[in-house]
Amino acid sequence: MLNVPSQSFPGSSSQQRVSSGGRSKVPLKQGRSLMDWIRLTKSGKDLTGLKGRLIEVTEEELKKHNKKDDCWICIRGFVYNVSPYMEYHPGGEEELMRGAGSDGTDLFDQVHRWVNYESMLKECLVGRMAVKPAFPKGMLPKSQVTDPLAKEGPSSPSYDWFQTDALVTIVIYTKQKDINLDSVIADHRHDSFRAETVIKDYSYLIHIALSHEIQEDFSVRVVENVGKIEIVLKKKENTSWKCLGHPLENHNSLIPKKDTGLYYRKCQLISKEDVTHDTKLFCLLLPPSTHLQVPTGQHVYFKLTITGTEIVKPYTPVSDSLFSEFKEPVLPNNKYIYFLIKIYPAGLFTPELDHLQIGDYVSVSNPEGNFKISQFQELEDLFLLAAGTGFTPMVKVLSYALTNIPSLRKVKLMFFNKTEDDIIWRSQLEKLAFKDKRFDLEFVLSAPTSEWNGKRGYISPALLSEFLKRSLDTSKVLICICGPMPFTEQGMKLLHDLNFSKDEIHSFTA
Ligand code: FAD
Ligand code: NAP
């Protein structure tokens, strides 16, 4: 049985509110927050029971440590003693015990591949798994003697390069048609160059230590109909290069996207504006040595070091306003990323974010997420159900749909908040509904003042069945839902009860 703290946790304003059933955060005992865990890891206490020694762990040994008070788990070849962490695990002890005495990498990746466990569990590190020799001495495993490209997945991409006096152009042939500027994420750091091209559920990597120096900025072009990408680097000196450079980890390989680690670059905080009493619009500037555009419906991870531990949290880019498509951008829009972020005074990460000064840096990852633009194909009715900052993925989805989908007849947003003061971009939303007749808007408040004339309460069958009316009986619909996990889970259940199919629903989760 888990201990539920006597105070009401999570508070009614907390994103950690727990619903009955479904995977959600579990109430933690008092003194067992992430911050408390960080403090414990800094206390100098021996958390592995090995007095700082690192050992080689055999499979037989790992299997023995399968009890709550003696629990070892292997993640990506490293073994951790997670017993001291049990009570701090937001998903609960039972969830952690699923990996007890075994390789928990797949389980971990399914639930939270983005969590920076190396940093959070570094004091629990027992050692590495002992590797069994899989091949007789002298024989190399096949993967080391053959082409490193995967044999399954999309047909193998390839690359080439050529040069002029001043430029070096890397050409990637993806052999796919649906490639655009969002598909390539490229970074130049010191003398290394890394370009990740997302092709369906795979990543094709170019990762090279360049043979000569280049200037900081570079450009990326895509020839969409043939799936060709050209990355144009500017030489620092006009000399002829004999080779592009030497390969680094995973160079020229096609790997499942879920197996590529998160790659971060430092972005500078340019501005921070109040949007509501607790939510702010943050503007970050990408370094000139990065090409990155976050696709509609995807999020990134922020990484900050908080009292010596790296903490990672997901955030969803928005545009600078709902009308940015219709006005001249003040800043060149492909270098700036905007985020609407709610600051939780008792939270771990957002107070740190809020304390950043203009000019400070935060590490931002490559985009992630399973929303696909193809879900919009031939779409006629788009319904958006958002609660609190669950509105953030809807911003780009809404703009994209209104601008790019000729078949679209109706977009409706039902936006759940506690009070009127909590509604993000209320006047912009109302203006948009006034300007674009295809867009309808409904606010639902759970704790309104007595003057509120609009809808009140929580997500419910009655609210949804009235709201989700197709414009034609045969309309192709998509319903997007996002908010606190229990809200989303309950909404999904109600949508299934209303006979919407899986393909007609998209829930935003990490
Ligand atoms: P936390 O430390 O997680 O705390 C949140 C609340 O829980 C606080 O009120 C805190 O008081 C309470 N709490 C925590 N632990 C305890 C405890 N032990 N006892 C009592 N109370 C406790 N958020 C945005 O604002 N904008 C976005 O664009 C955005 N995008 C997201 C995208 C995805 C895919 C996901 C999954 C989440 C997104 N989020 C977004 C949420 C974001 O990732 C963070 O969860 C959020 O910012 C809270 O972070 P925090 O560390 O400050 O708060
Ligand atoms: P909030 O203010 O706590 O809640 C917004 C509204 O939802 C309020 O009316 C609230 O009612 C209601 N609500 C909360 N829990 C509910 C539940 N279990 N059932 C029905 N209604 C519920 O929201 P927030 O603090 O902004 O949090 C937003 C959440 O969205 C966070 O958990 C964040 O992680 C998530 N998010 C996810 C993504 C993603 O892509 N996956 C993106 C952005 C945000 P009361 O307050 O009256 O209880």
UniProtKB/TrEMBL annotation:
Its main location: endoplasmic reticulum. Residues 154-245 form the CS domain. Residues 1-27 are annotated as: Disordered. It is found in: Endoplasmic reticulum. Gene3D superfamilies: 2.60.40.790, Cytochrome b5-like heme/steroid binding domain, Nucleotide-binding domain of ferredoxin-NADP reductase (FNR) module, Translation factors. InterPro entries: Cbr1-like_FAD-bd_dom, CS_dom, Cyt_B5-like_heme/steroid-bd, Cyt_B5-like_heme/steroid_sf, Cyt_B5_heme-BS, Cytochrome_b5/Flavoprotein_Rdt, FAD-bd_FR_type, FNR_nucleotide-bd. Its EC number is 1.6.2.2. It is an enzyme of class 1 (oxidoreductase). GO terms for biological process: superoxide metabolic process. It catalyses: 2 Fe(III)-[cytochrome b5] + NADH = 2 Fe(II)-[cytochrome b5] + NAD(+) + H(+). Residues 54-130 form the Cytochrome b5 heme-binding domain. This is Cytochrome b5 reductase 4. Belongs to the flavoprotein pyridine nucleotide cytochrome reductase family. Coiled coil: none annotated. Residues 1-24 have a biased composition (Low complexity). Keywords: Endoplasmic reticulum, FAD, Flavoprotein, Heme, Iron, Metal-binding, NAD, Oxidoreductase. It comes from the Eukaryota. GO terms for cellular component: endoplasmic reticulum. One of its GO terms (molecular function) is metal ion binding. Its cofactor is FAD. Residues 262-374 form the FAD-binding FR-type domain.
